[in-house]
Amino acid sequence: MLAPSDFFELDSFEHKGLFDGIDEVWDSLKYIRGYIEENLKPNVTEIRQMGDVLKNTVVIFNSEVITDGFELEAGSPAKGEFSVSMDGEVLDGAAVLFAGASIFDDKIHIGEGSVVEPGALIKGPTILGRNTEVRQGAYIRGSCLVGDRCIVGHTSEMKNAVMINRVTAGHFAYIGDSILGSDVNLGAGTKLANLKITGSKITFRIDRELYRTGLRKFGAILGDSTETGCNSVTSPGTLMGKRSMVVSNATVPGGYHPPRTIIR
Predict the structure, then answer these.
(1) What distance lies between CA 89 and its chain's CA centroid?
(2) Burial status of residue 63 (CB atoms within 10 A of its CB: 0-12, 13-18, 19 or more)
(3) Mean pLDDT of successive 10-residue segments in the chain (264 residues)?
(4) Going along 117-244, which residue ranges are E strands?
(5) Domain range list for the chain
(6) Cβ atoms of 172 and 189 closer than 8 Å
(7) 78: phi then psi, degrees, rounded to nearest 5
(8) 247, 29, 248, 246: which is closest to 257 by C-alpha?
(9) Full DSSP string of 39-69
């Protein structure tokens, strides 16, 4: 049995409740959407009234939407380098949605200090944590739970997926039906494949024991501090233990890989 605790330290994760009562970590994938809908506190309804694509940059501060009079100091919110001020006072915890961002659903929460750049598109239900960065061209397709200080990078796509805390998918990544532990880093072009060519349900063996996940779509479970090299691919139904590594251009076979595995 591979429990969530075998892959993730969850004490600092605000949404660790997603994993309550889960014996086998992949079963969490079945409950992402329901968990988000149950715990969602939407804060984009007023912004949605401005149109599906924002014509002007807006700020969310203390649950209010501010449309003018603010100043921005550019930088990465995940690294604490982005700030918003107004009348000479720093608005600590202010979130920013830039002109050109697309907010396609009311069922979205943008966390304090987070930034959504021009050209990014977010569908609900989705929760973004604090000080998280959604970069230009990112596509969050819904049923996504993103923790604190994460980066959903340029042309990276997420769907039915979880980033716990401090996860970076900076460039050209695909993250479908997957869970990424804290401090996971995806090299540019990493793809977490989630569907077998045959379309059959995902199974794998550990020590000759057959595990039937019951899932037709299952990308990857990446334990805390796992890193993937540029242009690497994980096969459907991949589970990598904590502090594992995938070198550039490698393909990871599906199934379980214990902590500190190196895939060459």
Answers:
(1) 31
(2) exposed
(3) 95 97 97 98 96 95 96 93 95 97 96 98 98 98 98 98 98 98 98 95 90 96 98 98 98 97 97
(4) 121-122, 126-128, 133-134, 139-140, 144-146, 151-154, 157-159, 161-163, 168-171, 174-176, 179-180, 185-186, 191-192, 203-206, 209-212, 220-222, 227-228, 233-234, 238-240
(5) 4-44+100-263
(6) yes
(7) -65, -25
(8) 246
(9) H-----HHHHTT-SB-SS-EEEETTEEE-SS
Structure tokens at 260: 């500190």
Among residues 10, 40, 42, 25, the alpha carbon closest in space to that of 177 is found at: 25
Contact yes or no for 248/207 (Cβ under 8 A):
no
pLDDT for 206 equals 86
Q: Which residues of 233-247 are buried (b: 16+ CB within 10 A; e: fewer)?
A: bbbbbbbbbbebbbe
How far does the chain reach from its first CA to its final CA, in angstroms?
A: 26
Task: Judge: domain 4-44+100-263, CATH 2.160.10.10.
Answer: yes
Q: What angle do CA 217, 221, 227 make, to 5 degrees?
A: 130
Q: What is the CA radius of gyration of the chain?
A: 18
* CA atoms of 227 and 243, how far apart (whole Å): 7
Residue owning tokens 């969050």:
140
- Give the pLDDT score at 106: 96
pTM as predicted: 0.96
Query: What local confidence, expressed as pLDDT, does residue 255 receive?
Result: 95
